[in-house]
């Protein structure tokens, strides 16, 4: 009987405490928000990183709807310079989640002009403009056609430019800093173009095979003896293998044919002939995980990160199914990229450190 009364009083007390907490949840939330707002707005990962080459995944997905992976986007930090490669949907949001201030972006690089690689570009350029009051547009590097893409986003956002300058004032948001400036580069006869080069840093673009999409490029980034290669969208490519020779980290796109077959069967059952056709068509201009592993093995890279994941992997255990036989092909570290992955490659070392930013 005593235990029953104790249990009853415990239940009453818990109910009252719960009711009190519920009643004060608003003020408690506001107090917590006051405490963390300044901390978050002051956060700037770029200022805290040690000198080196760092790679952050701000979007590891594809055009497929995917709750876990945003559109293609990779952040590369070389010393204190912040670069963004491709700007898929969700890029701006995830760059912030990684801990970077958008206004610190030094330049944007595009691999090609498929919609999923550029549909977040307008928002990213806008955030870069307003977050620190930049007075010059962000350079947007890309192959032939980048000027058309940047001009299109500039036109689409021009009314917004006027609203923000009128509302906040020229001293806060400088009209001249709006949007981006296209920086097209020409690929040479050897299939390469040196896009940026100084004493410690070199960024080279190289042609890849994503036909019928032309032009399409990948990038090789070298900084103080460390190197990263981004394949862009491509089928298995001799150019990627060439540029990745001895690279520390190869970030290679990947598509799983067996998992795509499941989607094709589902499209057949649903009577979606158009989707079945698309699901079959995309097989011929992407690389499988096994093919990416072959490239990594032949190029003797240190670490393989599979990116631009096709299709979406919504269920536990699907990453293992996605890899297929790839771990048996490449003996080094291999990972299916996830948004929030962050790799650090410090000078004078061969180590690659992986942390999760979110």
Task: Characterise this structure.
By secondary structure, this protein is α/β, with parallel strands linked by helices. It has two domains: 1-42, no CATH class; 53-356, Metallo-beta-lactamase, Chain A (4-Layer Sandwich), CATH 3.60.15.10. It is 39% helix and 24% strand. It has helices at residues 2-23, 25-42, 45-48, 91-98, 115-118, 121-131, 146-168, 238-243, 257-269, 273-281, 289-299, 318-323, 326-329; strands spanning 53-59, 73-78, 81-85, 105-109, 138-142, 180-184, 192-197, 201-207, 217-223, 226-230, 249-255, 303-310, 334-336, 341-345, 353-356. The strands form two sheets. The protein has an eight-stranded mixed β-sheet, with helices on one face. It has a seven-stranded mixed β-sheet with strand order 7-8-9-10-11-12-13. α9 runs antiparallel to α10 (273-281). The longest helix is centred in the middle third of the chain and has 23 residues, at 146-168. The chain is globular. The N and C termini lie far apart (50 Å).
